[in-house]
Amino acid sequence: MDDSLLSGVDLSQYSEQQQEKMLAKLYGKLEEQVGEKVAALVSDQQFDQFEALIDQGDEDKLDEWLMANVPDYEKLVEDTLNQLKQELQTNPQAFE
Amino acid sequence: MRASSTATAETPTDAEQPADRLVSVKRSNGETEDDWIYIGHDAHNRVIVVKSTPDNKLMTNNIALEEFQQLNPTFVESAAAEPAKTPSEAVPAESAETSLKAASTPEDWQRIKSEAKEFFDQFENVEGVEALRQAVSRHGSEVQAAMQQQLEELGLTSDIEPAVQNAKADKAAQLVEAALPYPDDVRRGDRKDIDRQRASLAKMLAMSDEQFSNLSQDWQAHEVSTLHGEALAEDKNYKAGEQRKAVKQELRGLDEKYGGVLPEISALPLDKEPGGALQTALGGYGERTQKINAGPASELINKDFLKQANAAQLVKELEASLTEKYQAQGLSEAQIQAKLAESHSSLETWVKGMDGQTSALGDLDKLEQQGNKEKMLTAKRHKIGEYIGSALLMRAIKGTFERGKSNETKTEINVTEVLAHGIDHNGSRGVAGAETLRNGEKAGSLGGRVMAQLETARQLSRNEGTLMRSLIYLAAVERSLGDSFVSTWDAIPAERKKQARKKLMLGMAATSSAIARMSAKAAQKARKTAATGAAAGTIWLGNVRS
């Protein structure tokens, strides 16, 4: 796989279907771990604001809110993704 | 994921089966058996197989297609090339007349499911079927006990099972008629419908517990998948998310152009009809603007000053028009002045935003139209969320069928897992996330899906008593958490649920947002690299030429 977000991940020994399954699992773990970390950085009041934004249904405002309330969230996600990619490479069975 | 279902019924000695239809199946005990006969696929793309047991029972099984393909890699192709034989071809014609026989093919399962749905939808009292089944079973036990006692008293020994079965069949027939009576003024067509429902109910009463459980489970899964699929397809076809984004962008553009006062202006009682005061005032403003622009430019005439005066005149005319409206509404002079003072700066900002253009009326219309469209699209998204929730509520109610089974295991509730399952029970977000990791261009679609699911989560969290309960119950049923799940869930403190929701929702939002940004950056980098490469190529070619 030479796609940028998955650089360094080689799943060529798996079928296309298995790869999809593994990546879906990786994405699920990513969300879960990011959720743990971000929730620790955000107060309950901030989360109330976040939920109010969801009610407005504005994706752009959601991005603005994340930038304002979760410093470096992009890096946080990137680091977590890199860590999970490493896990996937060293222990692919955990993602099957 | 549903567990494989297995059921048996009586069948005569197994006929010779074509070798090319024999397939391997892995049983729940881990053993692989290769004497199963391929029948076809069911509506969930699970493979239906049958086999005869040594005691002449017909056993059916359904397994996941993926598992089937792994065990039978060469079979799939030949099966696809040759249509599955009809049940009458695959199973000996003299098979016993049991309800299972009727349910041993995908078509029959589908028919029974649809009949069951018709029955359930009509009565909306699924517990009724269970109650009738219990009544039949109770009657059978009573008959058995009474007959046994009689036989003992008479000093006789005999197999009483046939008598018990007959008594149960008679009881079932009585109960079916009582449950589905013909109305006094029944018409011929209605009688036919009722007969059909009676036949469905009779079948359901005759089924074994396992068979009935399988039927209800299959039917529920089928119903939910269909409704959920329809709702998602509607969302996809309508592209509500994309449309709403476009509308919001247009509204934002208008907001920027007029300094954010347009909604306030729209609420003023300005006469916006064609030929009305607003159109007249704007027309005059436009004409004056043209004259100012076309007029002579000299040191003696300051055009900016004239433009400001022109704008001030328009504000004055608009306020005069508003005054007339307020007077017509019967407001006092003081009230009118207060209202005018309130709107004065907004009118000035609005006119400033016009900057000599005369499209202001059209922009006002656009604001109202797009605003309405935005509201409609938002409502549609919510409706889809509620629709899914309602569908699942139905399933939750009908999930009572599974109570007997799920009672056996009671597991500690993982609140986050149940919530996550509640808002995305088919794992579509994980699939979209995986696609985006492979192809950054899919980030938009992932974002839309995440937003819709965040909205659903929000809706559900507000309506925990109804929709959320149905969703969490669904999750409970699927995870066999037990029928006491709802009360256990209710007992979990709201704070714990909120913390779980916080982790889940923030994880969803932050991940999809960051992935979209990272994808965009990666794409930009790739473009830059490609451009640099192209430039380098040109230089190199130039070098060759020189």
Kindly describe this structure.
The complex is a heterodimer of chains A (96) and B (546). Chain A is an all-alpha fold and 96 residues long. Chain A has one domain (16-95). Chain A has 4 helices and no strands. Chain A has helices at residues 16-41, 44-56, 59-69, 73-90. Chain A is elongated, with a radius of gyration of 16 Å. The model of chain A has no long low-confidence stretch (mean pLDDT 89). Chain B is an alpha+beta fold and 546 residues long. Chain B has 4 domains: 6-105, no CATH class; 113-236, no CATH class; 254-358, no CATH class; 400-545. Helices cover 70% and strands 6% of the residues of chain B. Chain B has 22 helices and 5 strands. Chain B has a 5-stranded antiparallel sheet. In chain B, strand 2 and strand 3 (32-41) form a beta hairpin. In chain B, helix 5 packs across helix 9 and helix 9 runs antiparallel to helix 15. Chain B is elongated, with a radius of gyration of 36 Å. The model of chain B is unreliable at 1-20, 76-105, 387-410 and 534-546 (pLDDT under 50). The interface between A and B is large, with 43 and 48 residues.
User: How many strands, which pairing sense, and closed or not: the largest β-sheet of chain B?
Assistant: 5 strands, antiparallel
Molecular shape of chain B: elongated
- Number of beta-strand segments of chain A: 0
The arrangement of helices and strands of chain A along the chain is HHHH
Keywords:
heterodimer; A: 96 residues; mainly alpha; 4 helices; 0% strand; elongated; B: 546 residues; alpha+beta; 4 domains; 5-stranded antiparallel sheet; 22 helices; 5 strands; disordered C terminus
Q: What's the short story on this structure?
A:
The complex is a heterodimer of chains A (96) and B (546). Helix content of chain A is 71%, strand content 0%.
What's the arrangement of secondary structure elements?
The complex is a heterodimer of chains A (about 100) and B (about 550).
Chain A: H1 16-41, H2 44-56, H3 59-69, H4 73-90
Chain B: E1 6-10, E2 22-26, E3 32-41, E4 46-52, E5 57-64, H1 65-71, H2 75-81, H3 87-90, H4 99-102, H5 106-123, H6 126-154, H7 161-179, H8 188-206, H9 209-238, H10 240-257, H11 262-267, H12 277-294, H13 303-328, H14 333-354, H15 360-398, H16 403-406, H17 415-423, H18 428-438, H19 443-462, H20 464-478, H21 485-491, H22 494-545
Antiparallel strand pairs in B: 1-5, 2-3, 3-4, 4-5
